[in-house]
Specification:
It contains ten helices and eight strands. It is an alpha/beta fold. It has two domains: 143 residues, Rossmann fold (3-Layer(aba) Sandwich); 64 residues, DNA polymerase, domain 1, CATH 1.10.150.240. Helix 8 links the parallel strand 6 and strand 7. The longest helix is centred in the first third of the chain and has 18 residues. The N and C termini lie close together (10 Å). InterPro entries: HAD-like_hydrolase_sf (IPR050155), HAD-like_sf (IPR036412), HAD-SF_hydro_IA (IPR006439), HAD_2 (IPR041492), HAD_sf (IPR023214), PGP-like_dom2 (IPR023198). Keywords: Hydrolase. GO terms for molecular function: hydrolase activity.
């Protein structure tokens, strides 16, 4: 295989987290008697971190104080409810096992809070990733390339030897800013037409197709 390192987004790429995100968002909103949202609405709120999720979910005109209250409540609730309905997408475990059997390093770089990334990777993918990191204070979130570049440095892998895999425009932009190849998946939170409009280099529809692309992508 050409690549030595495959870096994955989390939400919408390896894990279907949408229902737990929506439930936790709506719980936090309900505490403050704010209107709740459908799953499809929440789908378009995610991608830029959980604070931005809450900013988009609260009613327009909400004060900074209200946003922070909802955000704090969301974090507290989601920490204990991030793995209720969440599940790996079909074929993801088999894909990761195959990559590891072939000696390919695997990592996760997500805009989800780092506390949740660690919990979910441990719960669902124990031993399947060489490194996983989420949003942390003082580190620019995607689409800034900071965390992706830090992974490359950690493993002393060049940009040409790594690929970034995600499901959204944020992931496409992240790979571009990092100077890396990217692969966009259609089973996540954004439709294929949207990915094409946002400049996806390569689009795959199943984990099996993703593996084939990783094996011959040039």
């Amino acid at each position: 295989m050409r690549y030595k390192l495959a870096i994955f987004d989390l939400d919408g790429t390896i894990l279907d987290t949408l229902e737990d995100l929506a439930d936790s968002t709506n719980y936090a909103l309900s505490v403050y008697h704010m209107p709740e949202h459908t799953i499809d609405e929440v789908r378009w709120f995610v991608g830029n971190g959980i604070h931005k999720l809450i900013e988009r979910a609260v009613p327009k005109g909400s004060s900074d104080e209200q946003i922070e209250q909802v955000f704090t409540t969301f974090k507290e609730y989601y920490k204990d409810h991030c793995a209720v309905k969440t599940r790996p997408y079909d074929g993801i475990m088999e894909l990761l096992k195959t990559l590891r059997e072939k000696g390919i390093l695997t990592a996760v770089v997500s805009n989800k809070g780092d506390f949740a990334v660690q919990i979910l990777c441990e719960d669902y993918f124990r031993g399947m990733f060489d490194f996983a990191v989420g949003e942390r204070e003082g580190i620019r979130r995607k689409p800034a390339p900071d965390s992706v570049l830090a992974v490359l440095e950690k493993f002393q892998i060049s940009k040409d030897e790594a690929v970034y895999i995600g499901d959204s425009e944020v992931d496409i932009q992240t790979a571009f800013h990092a100077g890396m190849k990217e692969i966009a998946v259609t089973w996540g939170f954004r439709p294929e037409s949207f990915l094409k409009e946002n400049g996806a280099d390569c689009i795959v529809h199943t984990p099996e197709e993703l593996l084939k692309v990783l094996q011959k992508y040039t």
